Amino acid sequence: MANELTxxxxxxxxxxxxxxxxxxLESLVVNVSTKRFSHQQHNIGVTExxxxxxxVATLGWFxxxxxxxxxxxxxxxxxxxxxxxxxxxxxxxxxxxxFRVGSGVTAPYLIADTGAVDVEYFLFAS
Length: 126
Prior knowledge:
Layout: E1 5-13, E2 21-30, E3 37-44, E4 49-50, E5 59-66, E6 73-76, E7 83-87, E8 96-100, E9 109-112, E10 117-125
Antiparallel strand pairs: 1-2, 3-10, 4-9, 5-8, 5-10, 6-7, 6-9
């Protein structure tokens, strides 16, 4: 079976000064060639921690939700590298991030801000 993964996202921007704008991408369907993914719920501390790859050999899509109410979590493409993406905490659970992982990334890491955060994430093979 092909086209196992269906993705969607949207945004709306309304600052009260300009006409509100928004975009939606619904039902982007992609193939997960090896039919492998990793799903984890972790407590990420202020020392970087490797993203659990499981049986995912070639990284594809990454989705993360920060479940903390206060602190943020950041994504690194490798150990000790620049922090490349961030998900803030929030009152009803925090922000999420979703992106296709770049071809040069083989061992990504997560690191929390000033206190440990609970996260849930999925990593799909390409």
